[in-house]
Amino acid sequence: MSQRTLRGFEAEARARLEPAHYDYFAGGAGDEATLRANEAAFARLGLVPRVLRGAAKLQTGVTLLGSRAAMPVLVAPTAFHRLADPEGERATARAVAAAETIMIVSMAATVAVEDVAAAAPGAELWFQLYVQPDLAFTEKIVRRAEAAGCKALVVTVDSPVLGRRERDLRNAFHDLPEHLCCENLRDGDRVRPVVMTPELSWEHIDRLGVMTSLPIVLKGITHPADARLALDHHASAIMVSNHGGRQLDGMPATIDLLPDVVAAVGGAVPVLLDGGVRRGTDVLKALALGAAAVAVGRPVIWGLAADGERGVSRVLGLLRAEIEHALVLCGRASVHELDVSMVRPC
Ligand SMILES: Cc1cc2nc3c(=O)[nH]c(=O)nc-3n(C[C@H](O)[C@H](O)[C@H](O)COP(=O)(O)O)c2cc1C
Ligand SMILES: CC(C)CC(=O)C(=O)O
């Protein structure tokens, strides 16, 4: 067992998971070119350190939309945690609370958002929403997230339809097992399916802005023109994401898309990034290129499948340690001191 790196956790998780469930978590859309590109692009960037700057006392904390995180790494929203561990999202949230960071709870969680919040008092939770075509039902979901104490609404905008995931097609993985369901979609005595909204448009974002006073984060913005539109439509933050390569295959890596989005936003709101972050040095590269923080998706699932809450704690702890180590080696005392001059192709 090699659990000294985030990638080591994947091997352990793979050994424990049902093969079709492993494929669901690990896989991407189409040829999985974007899935591979996300990690490969980080490897093509190098960090150029400064020296002799006496960086002994480190500062890794960030504040995002009023939520405090002890490191610039959030937990990205991922569905179906109870496929990885019986405690599911409860275990993830406890580990996130201990690591003092932020969990973006998926609308497609297998534990209700109220129960996630109750399991981890003190955890900073944001809620991810897929706008449902039934806007009255969408509003009910938003109200539940607000009442559970979620501090931001993360609206996923890259999924007007679901990506074509060929591993899932091959495995005929369409549904959760009988004993699990998307608890946030309970409606009376039935559970609604997750439905994508092909007609999703800026008008929906405007309506959500009226519906809630929570800050709205748009997840899945990649084109600079959309980043500018997001500002016009009062987004409080933007998340550069290609959904971990699970939606439009053939998209560039997120780290390669980040600089143009950062330039378009011009500092007006925080820009977050996810996709392929596997090392503390990846976090530093993203921050140097203008991200306010990053999020990790699969590594958290690998930790959860390998060893439940402890596994997620280990994954988050490894990232924190790697960030601190890389910061010192880069001659920086704070995650706020990173700038574009320290990133070069390698
Ligand atoms: C198994 C799995 C489930 C996911 N479920 C959701 C989801 O419910 N909502 C969402 O907005 N994104 C979802 N995502 C995308 C993640 O939020 C994130 O964009 C992606 O995982 C980041 O890439 P990484 O896995 O390389 O860190 C999911 C990703 C995975 C791998
Ligand atoms: C339930 C799914 C729509 C969750 C998701 O976003 C994903 O699998 O990428």
Task: Describe the structure in brief.
By secondary structure, this protein is α/β, with parallel strands linked by helices. It is built from twelve helices and 14 strands. The strands form four sheets. The chain has an eight-stranded parallel sheet with strand order 4-13-12-11-10-7-6-5. Strands 1-14 form a two-stranded antiparallel ribbon. Strands 2-3 form a two-stranded antiparallel ribbon.
Describe it.
The protein has one domain (6-345): TIM Barrel. Helices cover 40% and strands 14% of the residues. The protein has 12 helices and 14 strands. The protein has an 8-stranded parallel beta sheet with strand order 4-13-12-11-10-7-6-5. Helix 10 links the parallel strand 11 and strand 12 (271-274). Helix 4 runs parallel beside helix 12. It is globular, with a radius of gyration of 19 Å. Bound molecules: flavin mononucleotide and 2-OXO-4-methylpentanoic acid. Residues 79, 108, 162, 194, 243, 246 line the site of 2-OXO-4-methylpentanoic acid. Belongs to the FMN-dependent alpha-hydroxy acid dehydrogenase family. Residues 1-346 form the FMN hydroxy acid dehydrogenase domain.
By DSSP, the count of extended strands is: 14
- The number of helices is 12
How is the main sheet built?
A: 8 strands, parallel
Percent helix range: 40-55%
In angstroms, what is the radius of gyration?
19 Å
According to CATH, the homologous superfamily is Aldolase class I
Cofactors, ions, other ligands? flavin mononucleotide, 2-OXO-4-methylpentanoic acid
Strand content: 5-15%
CATH topology: TIM Barrel
How many independent structural domains? Answer: 1
How far is it from the N-terminal to the C-terminal residue, by CA? 31 Å
Give the spatial strand order of the biggest sheet: 4-13-12-11-10-7-6-5
CATH architecture: Alpha-Beta Barrel
CATH class: Alpha Beta
Q: Would you tell me the structural class of the helices and strands?
A: alpha/beta
Instruction: Give average pLDDT, whole number.
Output: 97
List low-confidence stretches. none
